[in-house]
Amino acid sequence: MRAMLGGHVDTAGGLPATGGLLGLHRAGKVQVLAVCAEKRNSLFPNVPTMKEKGVDFILHSWRTFMVPKGTPQDRIDILVGALKKVVKNKSFKKLLKKMGERPVPIYGAALKKKIRSEHARFGAIFKSIGVGKK
Description:
The protein has helices at about 1-5, 20-25, 75-90, 90-100, 110-130. The chain is mainly alpha-helical. The chain folds into 2 domains: about 1-60, no CATH class; about 75-130, no CATH class. The two termini are about 25 Å apart. The mean pLDDT is about 90.
């Protein structure tokens, strides 16, 4: 984003609220061309999704909690229980809505599966453009 604002690159990606994009957009410093989501973002209702623009690309903003391998299951259960309470909290939901985000809680095996799926998806994208391990 800084490189774009400085005139070094023509485009940039950003998160609606937490990445500063919303403020820059409202100040007229950036134009939002598309959102990388299944549906349009409530903060930018007139901005199409990438899919609407003809590009099948979705990028989620993740906030993931992980623990070291070998953490006792009872401790994991305590953390998951607390996170489930937070996701249901009205103030938390209000904050996320203000940021233009929706909670999509995923836990345990489902989270592991999602991480593996995203790793494979982005690995294929990187490979297709010639980015490899160094």
